[in-house]
Design a protein that fits this description.
The protein has about 350 residues and is mainly α. The protein contains 15 helices and seven strands. This is Reverse transcriptase domain-containing protein.
């Protein structure tokens, strides 16, 4: 760009040649990128996202918030501010009706009455999980997934899948039997994810909850049972989070309906809605009442009630605290791989320094 601007002011042969070389280099770069994307299409998003959006660009750096008119840089204070905000952001959604919705009031809630009017339920209980299911889930773990508060990485669980599949199956089935979700699995870490507009406004961040890998495996296996249960209950026009009901399917259905209406000379009116903080405003008491209306047994309801009860979260800023440890050696970090290194003419000094810094850090 520097030479392009220079050429616009000073149209000499030298500056034109530099501009030509710059354009050639850009063209060559994108040709190489296009070849790489043909071989690995998964890189498309990471390649083009920086050019079309600023989302996520602040997530690896410190976040500074405007708190009571002052830009706060202390990450501990920022984390506490996010924790207070994320934990109360959905309190006002739904107004007094949602706030005062008790278990007794849910019994005759209009949504429950509609379920009863349209659906004759048969009973549903969670069944025992088989070792083969647990082993399959362990082997299919993505080693790049974030680690929860227990700091047990998916990479380790995947390596010892054969050894832990049986005891883990026993634990899962004990949870189903006694209808009590382990408290350690209800502890999450909120990572603030930037959405848009002012980076200093906490309202422009959403919480990404990182849970224990073991909890996510158990949730996944129970979700499979729930999906089978509700597959024939869900309306065919409900898409997302269902197999063979993707965004593309929903769009094709809409477009085809509209095309047919236009061919018949009809006028199409559209009302588009987007529920604000839909997942944040989930009402556990009402949801449990709906599950009961769909035929969930008391044991199944007790397990789901335990899942929602006494959940705990803490805010974790996107930063590596290893860099805050004072040491002589240098640190290079790539994801979960860390290299400490120290150079010195005396080998003994180099070894002693690395050993000391390693003990001090870990």
């Amino acid at each position: 760009k520097k030479y392009a601007k220079k050429f616009s002011k000073d149209r000499k042969c030298e500056t034109w040649e530099l501009t030509r070389l710059r354009r050639k280099a850009i063209k060559s770069y994108w040709n190489e990128i296009s070849l790489e994307l043909n071989e690995n299409p998964r890189k498309f998003f990471s390649t083009f996202m920086p050019f079309i959006s600023s989302k996520g660009q602040k997530e690896t750096n410190e976040i500074h918030l405007n708190i009571e008119g002052r830009i706060e840089q202390d990450q501990r204070i920022v984390a506490e501010e996010f924790a207070d905000y994320f934990s109360t952001v959905a309190d006002a959604i739904g107004g007094e009706e949602a706030t005062n919705l008790t278990e007794e009031k849910c019994i005759n809630h209009r949504s429950i009455e509609m379920i009863r009017a349209r659906y004759e339920p048969d009973s549903f209980s969670f069944i025992e999980i088989k070792r083969e299911e647990v082993l399959k889930a362990l082997k299919e773990l993505n080693p790049r997934k974030a680690t929860g508060h227990d700091e047990i990485p998916s990479k380790v669980l995947k390596l010892v899948a054969e050894e832990i599949a049986t005891p883990l199956t026993d634990i899962f089935n004990q949870v189903i039997k006694y209808c009590e979700w382990p408290q350690e699995w209800k502890m999450g870490e909120w990572i603030p994810a930037y959405k848009k507009d002012d980076h200093h406004d906490k309202a422009n961040y959403r919480p990404v909850t990182i849970l224990s890998i073991l909890d996510k495996i158990f949730e996944q296996l129970l979700c499979q049972q729930l999906s089978q249960r509700f597959e024939n209950i869900f309306d065919p026009f409900i898409s997302a989070y269902r197999k063979n009901y993707s965004c593309e399917i929903a769009l094709v259905r809409l477009v085809e309906d509209w095309k047919q209406a236009m061919d018949e000379g009809q006028t199409i009116s559209i009302l588009s809605t987007d529920m604000s903080k839909a997942f944040d405003s989930l009402h556990p008491t009402l949801l449990l009442a709906k599950l009961k209306a769909y035929g969930f047994t008391q044991n199944a309801l007790d397990l789901m009630k335990s899942y929602f009860k006494e959940r705990m979260n803490r805010t974790k800023m996107r930063q590596n605290d290893l860099f805050y440890v004072e040491r002589e050696s240098r640190l290079s970090a790539y994801a979960d791989d860390h290299q400490f290194y120290y150079a010195h003419k005396e080998p003994e000094r180099a070894v002693d320094t690395i050993t000391r810094d390693g003990k001090q850090t870990f």
